[in-house]
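Feature request disguised as a bug report, sorry. It would help if multi-protein outputs had a clear separator. Right now it looks like this:
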Amino acid sequence: MPRMTAARAAVEILKREGVEVAFGVPGAAINPFYAALKAGGGIRHTLARHVEGASHMAEGYTRAKAGNIGVCIGTSGPAGTDMITGLYSAIADSIPILCITGQAPVAKLHTEDFQAVDIAAIAGPVTKAATTVLEAAQVPGVFQQAFHLMRSGRPGPVLIDLPIDVQLTEIEFDPETYQPLPVYKPAATRAQIEKAIGLLLKSERPLIVAGGGIINADASDLLVEFAELTGTPVIPTLMGWGAIADDHELNAGMVGVQTAHRYGNATFLESDFVLGIGNRWANRHTGYKLDVYTQGRTFVHVDIEPTQIGRIFAPDFGIASDAKAALELFVEVAKELRAAGKLPDRSAWVAAAQQRKATLLRRTHFDNVPLKPQRVYEEMNRAFGPETRYVTTIGLSQIAGAQMLHVYKPRHWINCGQAGPLGWTIPAALGVATADPETPVVALSGDYDFQFMLEELAVGAQHRIPYVHVLVNNAYLGLIRQAQLGLDLNFQVNLEFENINSPELGVYGVDHVKVIEGLGCKAIRVTEPDQLLPAFEEAKKLAAEHRVPVVVEAILERVTNIAMSRTADISDVTEFEELATEPGHAPTAIRTLQV
């Protein structure tokens, strides 16, 4: 039997589980693993500037392509705690990433050794499993089980903590005979699907709510096929955006109290049946007024996690199933019903949804200086085509972007949905661009999100990872400022100051252009609306030429209130800005405004 260190065995397993890229930061307690990584070859490593950044890079890498599992690596103690936010973000959105940490020697774990911390206990609540391996011979089994857990059922992250002496201990392990464990995913039965479709057929105004589970299951084509067979309009959630193209006649828009379309909310409130697939009924989608969301509607909920069914409200019928397995049966049964002439004509309901899509529009075309953010998204729609992958996390920038941008393919809106940590966008975009360097990547940040982990731009410069980053700067914590309106507050949300080194900025404070250039990237500052489109075109050229991140900073008016509900009620969304009343007000909308 071949002998090798436990660290080398772990590296060999990573390769056989399909890992090609890892992100991390080396250090004393994890150096034996890094030595094995170098000796074993076959895995490309990207050095992060912050260990939390490495975890978000791993997330972006996983989210970009079906089957990917991002790996992040760090030394002991603070590296592990730094990656907790990435693990929380991953488990919240059902994203499998593997976090590997170094640790003090086994004999020193309870002696308050330097940088020794019980990271497995800390990570437990935000992982599917977190293990400190105390016996070197267990390393192969722990890694094998980690990949099984990450892929089985509801996907999610795993942490493996390796004491330094465990890494260095030689064990007997034959990589050539290694096999991944079979993956378990619950599957719907024919009887369950027939009952669900029976409920759909009894309705007059049905909708499908398409969640991120459909994208995770790589089942978007099946979703579209089922929707087309039955003539059922689709409401994508924020995590499911892209499962059906925005310009598809059955895309009815998004619903919610923030990241929603006026027409999406209006159509949902007219519905009488909702089939949710791979979604969580998240509060930004449903609002907190669940009676408004549920009243007068029959609900069927399909989710891979059995305990998710009934967590927010009790559906009329629940099915524990992987989205792809369920949709395969939905399509099969629907085809049989169509052949038998038993599917009703939904054309009038579909037409009504499309009519709302052409009339209930928000205005995007403004010529104001400083810029209104709506104009930025309008020009992004012009500059960045349907092949673009958008990456963003939280804030008014994300909310307005989701209201006004367009997404046409699965995994082309890569968004940290539930956790929403500031600073996520830059490292996640680097992970996405690493996973698929051929597809254009455009990140979107407000100034505060951008400043949280901007040091990771140097990773893009060092490793030649090009993408375009749109930075909308109002020198404000805009979402928190808007949330404080109900409390009559404007407290500790102002970021403005007069920069003594860049007086031309006025009160906008941080000179992002200088910082970005200092990190080895390119930057363009835009102050007038007619400069936006040329700047985006120039950014694409600079990214292609120099193979580095290129940031376009748009200087916004200090205060813009973005449409959202003040009462967490999807029927009560406040439109703070002017609505579109003529086609020129929303020139890049999916449907030309009908007046």
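(second protein starts here, but nothing in the output says so)
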Amino acid sequence: MNSMKPHEDRYKWIALSNTTLGVLLVAINESILIIALPAIFRGIKLNPLIPSNSFYLLWILLGFMLVTAVLVVTLGRIGDIYGRVRMYNLGFAIFTVFSILLSVNWLHGQSAGAFIIGMRLGQGVGGAFLFANSSAILTDAFPNNQRGLALGINNIAGIAGAFIGLVVGGLLAPIDWRLVFVVSAPIGLIGTIWAYLKLRDNGIRTPAKIDWLGNILFAVGLTVLLVGITYGIEPYGSSPMGWASPRVLSELIIGVVLLIAFVIAETKVKYPMFRIQLFTIRAFSAGNFASLLAAIGRGGLMFIFVMWLQGIWLPLHGYHFSVTPLWAGIYMLPLTLGFLIAGPASGVLSDKFGARPFATTGMALAALTFVGFDFLPINFSYLPFALLMLGNGLAMGLFASPNRAAIMNSLPPDQRGAGAGMSGVFQNAAMVLSMGIFFTLMISGIASDLPAALYHGLVINNVPSQVATKVSHLPPISSLFAALLGYDPIKSILGAAFLSHLPAHSAAVLSGRRFFPTLLSKPFSDGLNLAFTFGALACLLAGIASLMRGKKYVHGQEAQTPSPSEAVAD
């Protein structure tokens, strides 16, 4: 029975609305650049397809996620010690300051790229503060029989925001690339003031010392590991990918060794940052494992869908390369709609019936949608694509809200910040890992067929054999990045000056909307088959993990539900 006083009842909705705004804003900023990158690179006069500039492309795109993944556990634990609302408010302020700085960038070239990377890393620090403490603040504010609804809305805002960012970026970037950063500043300022005036810390704070050894081992280890994964998708020597690079191998090994040392150290210190003992709670460990697998299954797919739409489907359907980023976001809206429908509804139902039936069913349905995508032709009809998108969004929404609520309900009140941070690091790190996996699968599928198809297509259109050979041996990731950025790949590679010396008909064919998308279709389809098969498998395993979570468990209600130790045997 809900015995909350009227002012407490009002406060919980204030907490929900403010934290949802914060999570939504951060999530939009994670994805807004995917669509806005072409306009940004044109605005700062930097060509991201030149190999020496790939650093800027990767870090502008991924730096925000890397910082958030690395810091979210630390900042959640600090929130437990010094106050979750205090840390959340600080995060809103940091995020807003760096949003303002991003919007006043008047530099050009590599200096402008470096400035954006630095400011995006700062934004990521603010985002980590918000992500790490928002779930704990909501869990403190809501009774356990309403946490599914609250965390469902909050969590779906985070997931849906990633797709909303695609459309917002596509709408604002063509007007002025700075607007994709400007738009965050006033909203962040309002959220910062609102949070400072209205939020209060009503959670349990535990006096403790900061675990500096654990923080350093974790931050350095995870950073090095994720950087290695990021550079693993870049070419190395004659190889289309860098997984055999000594640098990448060293980073992966060092990262894993440091993280193993971190786990060992956390069992030795009095006040650990990472509460290993929380994994003895079945609802917590199973929920996090399911979340990790679900994030791996869906994380890289956003980029795959964007490349599929921008690089192939939209040009084949008459859209000019310059407008494909915006329309890719629009055509993916059914996915967002599915999240928005299923997320809050499944959260409410899980408050009554528990997370297991909804989260498990959601992952099973998600796996089926990936199988369905695998059967679509590369030049599909939009209706079945939209229905599969809607189904995938419904499935992910059905999983995300109950799973998040079950994780937070399982935590002791004084460890909610640390637990939320631990859950967040699994999800955020899995997103980066997922991108590495999906890009690797796509490049593997493309590398075997694209060079020969590209060489033949260029030669029959009067491109000299030596030039065609050179172009066809460019790393496949260049083609993927061109598709992701909405560039005309052939025009970008050959250059307008070279095309002007070819016969008019050949130049028209090579720079037309159908030449490169048609060449890319078969190799891209091979990569898609690998990616969707992997996505289906990851979601299926996430469903199995969710099934193993046991009955509904809320910490502190051991008299009505199994205790952590009893839940293991459930």
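Even a blank line would do. Unrelated, but nice: Residues 394 and 432 are 23 Å apart (CA to CA).
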